[in-house]
Amino acid sequence: MSISSFLTKKFLKSLFFPAHNRGKALPKRLIKILKMRPGFWDLPELPEIGSPLAKTGLIAKSQKELSKRFKTKRCFFGVNGASGLIQSGIIAMAKPGEYILMPRNVHISVIKTCAMQNIIPIFFNIEFSSKTGHYKPITKKWLKKVFKNIDFKKKKVVGVILVNPYYQGYAAELEPLIDICHQKNLPVLVDEAHGAYFLFCQNLNLPKSALKSKADLVVHSLHKSLNGLTQTSVLWYQGDLIEESNLIRSVNLFQTTSPSSLLLSSCEESIKDWLNKKSISKYQKRILEAKAIFQKLLRKNIPLIETQDPLKIILNTSKIGIDGFTADSFFYKNGLIAELPEMMTLTFCLGFSDQSNFIALFEKIWMKLLKESKHFSKLKMIKPPFKLIETPEKHIGVALRSKTNRILLSESLGQISGDIICPYPPGIPLIVPGERIDQNRLNWIKNLSMYNEDLVNSYISVLKS
Ligand SMILES: Cc1ncc(COP(=O)(O)O)c(C=O)c1O
């Protein structure tokens, strides 16, 4: 089968990203252009359109309008996912050899930037729940403890990255965390890939957007948390801690010279759609429906985990002794495709289209799973083996480019990794280049690989001694 014929395949129900749900919730104006002769809209960087970095043209005008609307200094549309703009944001904060403080659950794009630029991560651990297998949101108390344990005199820390919300929707109260960083004059980049829509719904008891919480840089993935096409994203810039010229240079470094006019238009429309009164009331209705779906499923005694993002329905499969990967294949086979299988859970993303027929199908497959599952076992999840503060023993970029041997992960005890091990989704690395592989790390990955086929018998490149 070719890729193109797969794209036309029908699924009974897809609860994965992009959040427009196979076009059902795309902004009307985008649908209008997509209905024209295929490819008609695929234009180059004509002067009238410009580009995200041009001073004139429709893109510049649109970005200017939006930053004015949200009281930021600038914003930049992106066509290389949230990944591309996170990378630009990082190099605007740090030069090679400087340190950035970041939680252990950063997205792989952060690690790749550290590798490219020889920026040194100071990882801090996060509290973890063995019941859900998820990291918990960061509290002010926790971040204060982290700051107390860093020797700011010895290490030139130049910025902080926070991930909020997490993939599953857990969100912290950001402003007090950002305040702690600002007290040390450290700019904060918030990876809000999963929380763009928080910016538009302040009346629905959703987390306060990073943009309203004084973050210096905020990256939104428009295909994950608004109605954009895949790869669309936006970077917002405010405050005085990052130099504008530095940021522009950094955005430029990761910019294709031929950004897709369709994707740029999708960036614009997916944001503007949420500023339209009629659309916003429809989306707010969807959010309320999502809350109602959660409550209805709970009342049917289906084990769910609640996070701060109502659009994520997290099934706690561990409650019936089934891992999320097994449950995922079962749901898939029965026509309901989820977004994120993990050891204890399976996460479904409702997105922004009408999901009123979700409950019946979900319940039906769930009941079937209960009936057909034979061996219920108690899943035991090992806590991530990280110290409160850790920095890879060798620079990530140096380790990644070193001479290595490829060996079985299970035989790598005591070696330094030249590899990233990173199942996707969620795209959070378990080992990064330059880290020494100790027994605790091996035990932890072994525990995870009992359920995640991608990790079974995995090989790793380790540095030649
Ligand atoms: C927390 C987080 N940040 C950033 C990204 C990257 O987003 P994109 O796929 O738009 O590049 C992801 C993708 O999964 C993510 O989960």
State the name of the first-level CATH class of the domain at 28-275.
Alpha Beta
What is the count of helical runs? Answer: 15
Pick out the low-confidence regions. Answer: none
In CATH, the topology of the domain at 28-275 is named Aspartate Aminotransferase, domain 2
Key phrases:
4-stranded antiparallel sheet, binds pyridoxal-5'-phosphate, 465 residues, Ornithine Decarboxylase, Chain A, domain 4
Q: How would you summarize what this structure contains?
A:
It contains 15 helices and 18 strands.
Fold and architecture overview:
The protein is an alpha/beta fold and 465 residues long. Among the domains are: 28-275, Type I PLP-dependent aspartate aminotransferase-like (Major domain) (Aspartate Aminotransferase, domain 2, 3-Layer(aba) Sandwich), CATH 3.40.640; 392-463, Orn/Lys/Arg decarboxylase, C-terminal domain (Ornithine Decarboxylase, Chain A, domain 4, Alpha-Beta Complex), CATH 3.90.100. The protein has 15 helices and 18 strands. The protein has helices at 3-7, 28-34, 58-69, 81-93, 108-117, 140-148, 174-183, 222-225, 244-253, 261-272, 277-299, 324-333, 358-372, 396-400, 439-449, and strands at residues 13-14, 74-78, 99-103, 120-124, 128-129, 134-135, 157-163, 188-191, 217-221, 233-237, 304-305, 312-315, 336-337, 340-341, 346-349, 389-390, 404-408, 459-463. The strands form 5 sheets. Strands 2-10-9-8-7-3-4-16 form an 8-stranded mixed sheet, with helices on both faces. The protein has a 4-stranded antiparallel sheet with strand order 11-12-15-14. Helix 4 crosses helix 5 (108-117). The chain is globular and about 60 Å long. The relative contact order is 0.14. The mean pLDDT is 95. The structure holds pyridoxal-5'-phosphate.
